[in-house]
Specification:
Blueprint: H1 10-13, H2 17-28, E1 42-47, H3 59-72, E2 76-81, H4 98-111, E3 116-121, H5 126-137, E4 141-145, E5 152-154, E6 157-159, H6 163-173, H7 179-189, H8 201-211, H9 227-246, H10 250-253, H11 256-269, H12 274-286, H13 292-299, H14 316-322, H15 324-334, H16 350-354, E7 379-384, E8 387-394, E9 404-412, H17 415-419, E10 434-437, H18 458-462, E11 470-472, E12 484-489, E13 506-510, E14 515-518, H19 522-531, H20 542-550
Parallel strand pairs: 1-2, 1-3, 3-4, 9-10, 10-11, 11-12
Antiparallel strand pairs: 5-6, 7-8, 8-12, 9-13, 13-14
Bound molecules: FE2/S2 (inorganic) cluster.
FE2/S2 (inorganic) cluster binds near residues 55, 123, 124 and 200.
């Protein structure tokens, strides 16, 4: 039971007189019997279900399983909607709305008579958005992610959602596929409920939630249509009631040790670079000191163990059958790469949770002794005069021969500007060129979209070139691949050095040395800066205005400045 005695919800449902009648009476219009107001824990189920967010469309069924578990454990479940963010449809990018989801969910959790919450997420931004909210309210919380789709199947081979799209597009441009074949292939790729089944951002963030201790073991990997996903959801309903009774809150679970575990797990699974931004934002809500460089330092000792697309071969369904995330975490724990004593929503430490986790397929989940990729091939943090605030690159998705590279810049002020000429046979570009795509950061696009891995110029694709260095202040889908320097901070729209690059400048990328250098002298850069003019604001009203006025840079998580930190859950004033 919470310290101080009594459940939060009794302030509403235990009230007498006019207020109590109002709180209970209108709830009884749903047909609840009076004993649901007898002081049992009230559990909110925050669902990001929507037909506009196809990865989350089954969450209303997952919620039913959660409710069963809550009733079983003696709680009172109440489902409520939180903003659904579908990666595939939202323009200009779902990331523009992650902080809005976090703000909405935080306020709903605080303003309602809830003692604990179950967070139902799936598509990329819904997991970090809900975790940010739960961190700021700090009510006992369990996450249940919706699970990955079944493996895509096309012409007898497995195809990964997202990852295959990039390849199909290249094949279409290069004439290896027809438009009709592409339309057929898209139906083969997304063939069940669930989120992307590559190790993209959704799978990564589901794994992060499990690694942080915020969802039950195996939750990240059960396919969306697997009965065990629903079993786990029911179990989560039982567990959250126990968390309320024990007063175990997100702030006690998502500690610095838990974030270090998550960063190492992200390296071991070959996870998305988006985890960097989201984990920084969640940590910022909790006051946990976490810095961009932690992602490089902590990941350097960790080999990639999971052989999944886009860095590897297999897909999430295979990962599930091979033993799921606990098999990876056990391997890390046994090699001293995990804080085994970090507490989780099970009430047990993470080491105990994974101590006996089996691995059924060493092709998919490799060992530390014989890893898929050696230590030091994960996400690297770069610095230099082009990115004084830092930038990241996913080494496992890059071409090894490009990790040390010097080339002349070809600069575009938007992806649209680039695509307007990318098919031009006379475009002055070769495989050594460094493509610079800018004004794609949090303030610039706005919302920092996943546009950084622009498709290669057609003339290079036709010559068989499959990769080249690209530099951008935007993000890259976790399902994508390529030698792409991302999250350059400060972004061009705030006058960062990226805004000062000119076509023809020399740029040196040296990932082993962790540097990104624009070979232009300070004097010349100062002169260019004096001539630089900021762009007009994107909007004069509404969310976009609020967002662009207050969004922070990528190196601290791109939260809004006034949302960093926590307000807790007290609301002393009554509404009646
Ligand atoms: Fe939703 Fe990939 S589009 S997870």
């Amino acid at each position: 039971m919470p310290s101080g005695g009594g459940l939060r919800s009794t302030q509403w449902f235990g009230a007498t007189g006019r207020s109590g009648m109002a709180y209970r009476g209108w709830m009884r219009s749903q047909g609840f019997t009076p004993e649901v107001f007898d002081g049992r824990p009230v559990i909110g189920i925050a669902t990001t279900w929507s037909e506009l967010a196809p990865c989350n469309v089954h969450l209303h069924r997952v919620a039913e399983s959660v409710k069963r578990g809550v009733w079983q454990a003696g709680g009172f479940p109440l489902e409520f909607p939180a903003m659904a963010l579908g990666e595939t449809l939202l323009r200009p990018t779902a990331m523009l709305y992650r902080n809005l989801l976090a703000m909405e969910a935080e306020e709903l959790m605080r303003a309602n008579p809830l003692d604990g919450v179950v967070l139902l997420s799936g598509c990329d931004k819904t997991t970090p958005g809900l975790l940010m909210a739960a961190a700021s309210v700090d009510l006992p919380a369990v996450m249940v992610t919706g699970g990955p789709m079944l493996n895509g199947k096309y012409q007898g081979t497995d195809v990964g959602s997202g990852t295959a799209v990039w390849r199909f597009e290249e094949d279409l441009v290069a004439g290896r596929m027809t438009q009709e074949e592409c339309v057929f292939a898209e139906g083969c790729m997304a063939r069940s409920n669930g989120h992307c089944m590559t190790m993209g951002t959704a799978s990564t963030m589901a794994s992060m939630a499990e690694a942080l201790g915020m969802q039950l073991p195996y939750s990240a990997t059960w396919p969306a249509v697997d009965a065990r996903r629903y079993e786990t959801a029911q179990r989560a309903g039982q567990v959250v009631v126990g968390l309320v009774r024990d007063d175990l809150r997100p702030s006690a679970i998502m500690t610095r040790a838990a974030f270090e575990n998550a960063i190492r797990v992200n390296a071991a699974i070959g996870g998305s670079t988006n985890a960097v931004i989201h984990l920084l934002a969640i940590a910022g809500r909790l006051g946990v000191p976490l810095a961009l460089d932690d992602f490089d330092v902590l990941a350097r000792d960790v080999p990639t163990l999971v052989n999944l697309q886009p860095s590897g071969q297999y897909l999430m369904e295979d990962f599930c059958y091979a033993g799921g995330l606990p098999a990876v975490m056990r391997e890390l724990a046994e090699n001293g790469l995990l804080h085994a004593d970090a507490i989780t929503v099970t009430g047990s430490a993470v080491g105990a949770n994974v101590a006996d986790a089996p691995c059924w397929n060493r092709e998919v989940v490799k060992s530390v002794a014989e890893p898929f990729q050696p230590a030091g091939t994960g996400t690297a943090v770069l610095r230099g005069n082009l990115a004084p605030g830092g930038a990241v690159i996913k080494q496992s998705a890059s071409s090894p021969h490009l990790l040390k590279h010097r080339g002349r810049a070809l600069v575009f002020d938007s992806p649209a500007d680039y695509y307007a000429v990318s098919n031009d046979p006379d475009l002055d570009v070769d495989e050594d060129t460094v493509l610079v795509i800018r004004y794609c950061g949090p303030r610039g696009y706005p919302g920092m979209p996943e546009v950084s891995n622009v498709a290669l110029p057609r003339k290079l694709l036709l010559r068989g070139v499959r990769d080249m260095v690209r530099i951008c202040d935007g993000r890259m889908s976790g399902t994508a691949y390529g030698t792409v320097v991302l999250h350059v901070a400060p972004e061009a729209a705030t006058g960062g050095p990226l805004a000062l690059v000119r076509t023809g400048d020399w740029i040196t990328l040296d990932v082993p040395a962790r540097t990104l250098t624009l070979e232009v002298g300070d004097e010349e850069l100062t002169a260019r800066r004096a001539r630089w003019e900021p762009r007009a604001p994107h909007a004069s009203r509404g969310w976009t205005h609020l967002y662009t006025e207050h969004v922070l840079q990528a190196d601290t998580g791109a939260d809004l400045d006034f949302l960093v930190g926590a307000s807790g859950h007290p609301v002393p004033k009554d509404s009646h």
